[in-house]
Amino acid sequence: MGGVVLKKRYLGLLALLLAVLGVAAAGCGGDDGGGGAATALPSASCGPIRYEGDGDPDYLIASDFPLQGANRALTTEMADAVEFALKQRDWKIGDLTIGYQSCDDSTAQAGSWDSAKCTANARSYASNEKMLGLIGTFNSGCAKLVIPVLNRAQNGPTPMVSPSNTYPGLTEGGPGTEAGEPDNYYPSGKRNYARVVWNDQFQGAANAQYAKELGLKKIFILNDGETYGNGIATLFDQYAKKLGIQILGNQKWDKKATSYEALGSRIKSAGADGVFFGGIICNNGGKLLKDVRAAVGPDVEFIGPDGWTPISATIEGAGGAADDMYISQPGIPIDQLTGKGKNWVDSFEQDTGKSTVDPYTAYAAQAAEVLLDAIDRAGGADRAKISEELFNTDVKDGILGNFKIDENGDTTLGTVTFFEVKNGEPEFVKTITPELSFVGG
Amino acid sequence: MSSTANRRSEWRSQVSETLRFDAIRAQWRRLPRRVRGAALPTIVIALAFLYPYYRTWLPDIPIFGDVPTVDTGVTMLIYMMMAIGLNIVVGYAGLLDLGYVAFYAMGAYTAAWFASPHFENVHVHAGAIGVNPKAAGFHVSIWLVVVVAGILSAIAGILIGLPTLRLRGDYLAIVTLGFGEIMPQIARNGDNLFGTGFNLTNGAQGINPIDPPGFGATLNRWLGLPEDFLTVSNGINFFYWTALVLLLFTVFCSVRLRDSRLGRAWIAIREDETAAAAMGVPLMRTKTWAYAAGAFFGGIAGAYYAAFKSGTFPDDFFFNISVFILCMVILGGMGNVWGVLVGGGFLAYLNQEGLGNIGQEINKNLGTNIDVPLYQFGIFGVILVVMMLFRPQGLIPSERRKMEFEEGVADEPLYDVRHAPDG
Amino acid sequence: MVTQARRAPLPTVGRRLQGRIMPAIGALLVALLVLWLVVNFIKTPAEFYRLFLIGVTNGAIYGLVALGYSLVYGILELINFAHGDVFMLGGMLVATMVTTFGLADDSGLVLWSMILLMLVIVMAFCAVLNTTIELVAYRRLRHAPRLAPLITAIGVSFILQNIGLVWKGPRPTSVPSILPRGTVFTIAGVPYTWDKLIVLLFTVPVLVALLLLVQRTRQGKAMRATAQDRDASAMMGINVNRTISFTFFIAGGLAGAAGLLYALYITNIRYDEGFRLGLIAFTAAVVGGIGNLPGAVLGGLVIALIESFNNGLSWATPGSDWTQSIIFAILIIILVFRPEGLLGERTPEGV
Questions:
Q1: What is the chain A residue with the closest CA to C276?
Q2: Cα dist. A70→A110, A229, B59, B118, B349 in Å?
Q3: Which of B164, B171, B323, B324 is the mutation pick for testing C, counting most C CBs within 10 A?
Q4: Does C267 touch chain A if contact means CB atoms closer than 8 Å?
């Protein structure tokens, strides 16, 4: 195959290309839905359909989490919680039988969420008309790619409820967001995305308020350089400055670094009386706390957002270095849940044989409940209708308590709870509900 | 060797006689040579183009399950493009590059700069499709952006190459690795570049949405080309065909480059750098061109990939990706375009879809209940090791490489000839 | 070892650059670096000293891992990507042993003999593992194109990481701190602790022993000969395969020792930590002059010091956001000006 024949070949190729494009443009519709059992989502990303009801399920819901890499312990548990929600309803909403598939948005190469996988998954959800809704995504970055694809789906926006996206710009503008957000994500003009977790604006504001209450004057911020950590650190920075707290620096910690002694030494020489850790425990947080605590001594206060939950993981990772650290958590902590929440924790633990449940697992369960209720209220398998119903959510005595979903898709569950680690045990300190005027900037 | 060849030709003639293909064969031979030469590529290309139509009728592949989706097809084509680009550097010129991801990043961020609302203070619209006319930022037609991305990446390649290409072998490899590590860090910290407050890359939040490809209303009316890939009903097919056209362009350029004067100079450098220099091949310039050419295609692929995913994030550009693309080149057969295509397509498929499928198939057929995502990484490793042990020269080794190999030059590092002329 | 970076005559442009401009730029960069260090030292001497101690200790660990890379590279010219993961598995084995033996509460003689026992076990484990890897994944490719074993090395690395993931899970494993952390002496208010001293006390004898092994023993001679010319040494009656196996065995033992130190000193180990540390260690080996054993340790020290100073100093310091970039930028600068590495031998070729 030398270059001799290339010119002729190219003419032919061009003709072929035009012909193909012509055929394609002549129009060939999408996959037809039809009746019958649901077609499974592609097995490349999604596990087998989980369904224990009669026959085959007519419809599906799915979850989209990174099942490989550092977060896997948590994400697999969250997937179990979604399955458990369906199981409790006997795989049935009204007269629709519903199965569940757990999908993976990570790849072996990336070891965490992968942007190409996120969009590919999103397309497969959008094109499968039997797919009634998505629980996910886990990462806000992935949500930025998935929401618009689901929003643009052929037969109306596909509903999506996230248990863990905290990036504010997904639902509203204001501090910590960019121009054009959130409308960027909703090209059809209709909303299809809700979340049961507070966005970072609230938590950043609450953390800043608490730092002020502790009497801190000079704070050093560390962040893990990821979407969540960087976002919450930036917001904390903004709100703390508004409250007159001096910010000495906002540095990234490298999750793959061998040690953080030098970083701790820098914080010490900067003269900070408090350190804010914007990031997650999974990014080598245990080692970070150990080294920074060793460097700055016992008098400097540590504050961390909900990336440091479950607090037991922080204590396990950092040992004694976690003592005296304040950790905030949106909503009510899992071991202080009452009513339905308490029942849910007990029965989920019984069902899975686990002894400790991660707080985000409760969020996953609540997200599943919100989606299933919306399907129930919509009274049918119309995805656009279910999307609309998401915004009429009014949960009374749910797993996370009482809350509504507002018109942006945010939860009204506005409390942020603070814990202090004392002698290896988390201790409830107080709850803070920041003023909306302060949060909105 | 000869006996098997005899047997094979015997068998072939028997088959053709029994099936009475003789007439067709005679007819075929009467066709001009160039037509015959074009037949196979044309068929392959036609099959590739029509893939979205017959995909659903294809049976499952054993072990691998479903055939790849069109979506995965796009990713495969883009990775093939990058592999071809890297092959110019590693396969043709014999320069080990462990930081190819830098060019991919350069391309992706170029797309993000010139086709997204990222720069809030400018308002430039030049042919972008499906964008609100009031939106801020640069919105240049994605087709132009792809070309610009290629050129900028090539410039980056030259800038990286100039001070470092003097180095040889693994020293060069480690320097490229360095650039591959520096680039993502710039992407990650670029929201406040060097404390100036200038937001170049939007840091960890990444840049999105990137404008979709499309041909616009006019071309849609006159030629029936889709206006906007995202809104048209079978948009994914158009993403696929566009990627295929880009790949064909890449392959064409790559083959032409290989057979050009420059390509021969690359091969000369690869085989014996000192001798090549003695024969008057300008080493620096020739190597820099290899870098620029490789980077050009990496940039194009990166930009198109970013547009396909409609976003770019610093997490997309890790050392692992450089290694991944290098694996494609070596596994496919260094220096051989067709081998690299196969290697690139296969590994990209594995990563995107295949590994998950394999696990599910095992679970289904053996009745086991393996937690697939937990073992994907390891399965990938096993496949790499096993394939390399059985085909050390790659799936389809290049003829010339094979020759070097058999003549014994191959005892010396192939990409690094510093030992070759040792007296 | 003595694999030299043999170099061809420089091309003309390069030669002209080399003549005037390049040394000037090089001198300027070094001057800037020295200025930065000096100013920081004058401003905050105690901090500077503290960071120096941190850097030296981490550097010793990097150096130990880098030695393994250097050994294998010297003899096979192979970047053994799996080396870091062997090290990681060693660390995990130590983590397991510390918990199962319940060493957290021991002290004195019991503790030290147990640490010694663990050292022997983990070194043997890693040495056997590394030799097995060579046997399975590299030996068959001895005559294949040189990049082929690079790919199997990457494949093996993935497999080992997966083993670590399945073994210890995705979260970092915390190792109980059993090394004594008391103060040895205090200068300028900065204490020097026992655990840091132990790391150094460990690295130096290992390096000396290794040098003696390579330079003074028959086996070492065989290794050097094989590194220089495999065919010729085979003709001289050296069992090449056994020599290479032996090299991998030693390199694995070093990885095991480094794993023990890492687990006990850093007290944290995660499945993907080996790969990253391996990358840094390999870089260290190249900075020092690959194939040169003291160079590998020196390279480790240089990298760890850069890391430590950049993370911890406060005057005109980019800070931890840029550490990775700065390490590699300095690497690139070193290689551009001294392509043979800091301690590599400059041996002109062909002329």
A1: A256
A2: 11, 15, 36, 30, 23
A3: B171
A4: yes
Report DSSP letters for A405-427, one per residue.
B-TTS-B----EEEEEEETTEEE
> Is there a contact between C307 and A251 if contact means CB atoms under 8 Å apart?
no
Domain holding A429, by residue range, is 200-330+416-440
Beta strand A131-136 with A160-162 is parallel
Q: A381 near A59, Cβ under 8 Å?
A: yes
Residue A185 lies in a domain: yes
Residues A50 and A84 in one domain: yes
- Nearest residue to A207 via CA among A187, A224, A189, A221: A221
Read off the pLDDT band of C171 (50, 70, 90): confident
Residues of chain B with Cβ-Cβ distance to A137 below 8 Å are: none
pLDDT of A354 higher than 60: yes
What is the pLDDT, as a whole number, of residue A319? 85
Chain B CB contacts of C146 under 8 Å are: 410, 412-416
The average pLDDT across A388-406 equals 91
Q: Are residues A208 and A239 in the same domain?
A: yes
Indicate whether A16 belongs to any domain: no
Contact B128, B113 (CB under 8 A): no
Q: Is the pLDDT of residue B246 over 50?
A: yes
In Å, how far is A290's CA from the nearest CA of chain C?
Answer: 10
pLDDT at C85 (0 to 100): 96
Q: How far is CA C334 from the centre of its chain?
A: 17
Q: For residue range B353-390, what is the model confidence (pLDDT) as tens digits?
A: 888 888 888 888 887 777 778 888 888 899 899 988 99
Task: Tell me the C-alpha to C-alpha distance, in Å, between residue C191 and each of A271, C181, C218.
Answer: 19, 10, 44
Asked whether residue A304 is assigned to any structural domain, the reply reads yes
A116, A162: one domain: yes
Same domain for A299 and A388: no
CATH value at residue A216: 3.40.50.2300
Question: Is residue A15 one of the residues assigned to a domain?
Answer: no
Structurally, at CATH architecture level, domain C45-337 sits in Orthogonal Bundle (1.10)
The model's pTM:
0.88
pLDDT digits over C183-196, tens only?
998 988 888 999 99
ipTM of the complex: 0.87
Residues in chain B: 423
d(CA A252, CA A239) in angstroms, rounded, equals 19
For A304, the enclosing helix (H) or strand (E) is: strand A301-304
User: For residue range B146-157, what is the model confidence (pLDDT) as tens digits?
Assistant: 999 999 999 999
Same domain for A226 and A308, yes or no, is: yes
By Cβ distance, the residue of A225, A269, A282 closest to C171 is A282
| pLDDT band with cut points at 50, 70 and 90 for residue A402 | confident
Residue A112 has pLDDT above 90, yes or no: no
pLDDT tens by residue, B80-119: 999 999 999 999 998 889 899 999 999 999 999 999 988 8
pLDDT digits (tens, 9 = 90+) for C104-143: 777 788 899 999 999 999 999 999 999 999 999 999 998 8
Q: List chain C domain ranges.
A: 45-337
Give the separation between CA A398 and CA A194, rounded to whole angstroms.
16
For residue A28, is pLDDT > 60? no
Mutation site, B87, B160, B168, B182, interface C, largest C CB count within 10 A: B182
Q: Which residue of A has its CA nearest to B240?
A: A21
Q: Could you tell me how many residues make up chain A?
A: 441
Helix axes C12-19 and C21-43, enclosed angle (nearest 10): 50
Domain boundaries, chain B: 70-316
Helix, strand or coil for residue C316? coil
The CA-atom distances, in angstroms, between B418 and each of A281, B55, B91, B398, C10 are: 48, 49, 17, 22, 13
Question: Which of C87, C159, C171 best probes binding to A when mutated, by most A CB atoms within 10 angstroms?
Answer: C171
